[in-house]
Amino acid sequence: MPNLDLIKQLRSQTGAGMMEVKKALGESGDDIGKAVEILRKSGAAKAAKKADRATSEGLIDIKISSDNKKASIIQINCETDFVAKNDTFINFVSDLSGKNLESGTAETEFNSRKEDLVLKIGENLTFGNAEFIESDYVAGYLHSNKKVGAIVAFSKEVPEELAHDIAMHVTAANPSSTLLKPVYCIL
């Protein structure tokens, strides 16, 4: 019988299901490192099997730098609304948006972490789009459903409330959701 402490440790480390963890520990002779590698390979295989499944749900996330000069908007797609509301998925998308704001590496980061998350949540994920914007002043609006949002870039600093309202109106105008392009305003 597998060691319960090892099962708990591996589950918390990988997020994999109980049966997958037990199987990986059995195959690895209770070696955590080998078990993690087995689970990664299993995750890659599962991700490959799910790659053809449609990803019609998902989230958008926006991050804006503290000086309002840089912004990131990112869209990650999943199969179901259930997963789109899952804290693990929400945190994943938020983290990717932060990485995109810092270094513009959202897609690379997504590709390196996708298989582990597919193993954890059991659905196909696709990278929708990401944009990094830098301007004299940027603002964004993300609707409460996190499915629509916009970034607006200004040629000079504007009042925060005005910038937010303009971004909200751009979102309400329902621009093409497939491009996630920012709107540039010259004032």
Percent of residues in beta strands? 15-25%
Q: What percentage of residues falls in helices of 4 or more residues?
A: 40-55%
**What is the CATH first-level class name of the largest domain?**
Alpha Beta
Distance between the termini: 70 Å
Order of strands across the main sheet: 1-2-3
User: What Rg is obtained from the alpha carbons, in whole angstroms?
Assistant: 20 Å
Look at the structure and give the mean pLDDT. Answer: 82
CATH architecture of the largest domain: 2-Layer Sandwich
* Main β-sheet description: 3 strands, antiparallel
Q: Count of DSSP E strands? A: 6
Outline:
The protein has 187 residues and is of the alpha+beta class. It has seven helices and six strands; from the N terminus they run αααββαααβββαβ.
How would you sum up this structure, described in words?
The protein is of the alpha+beta class and 187 residues long. It folds into two domains: 4-50, Helicase, Ruva Protein, domain 3 (Orthogonal Bundle), CATH 1.10.8; 57-185, Tetrahydropterin Synthase, Chain A (2-Layer Sandwich), CATH 3.30.479. It contains seven helices and six strands. It has helices spanning 4-14, 18-28, 32-50, 81-84, 87-103, 106-121, 160-172; strands at 57-64, 70-78, 125-134, 137-142, 149-154, 183-185. Strands 1-2-3 form a three-stranded antiparallel β-sheet. Strands 4-5-6 form a three-stranded mixed β-sheet. Helix 1 crosses helix 2, helix 3 (32-50) packs across helix 6 and helix 5 runs antiparallel to helix 6 (106-121). The radius of gyration is 20 Å and the shape is elongated. The N and C termini lie far apart (70 Å).
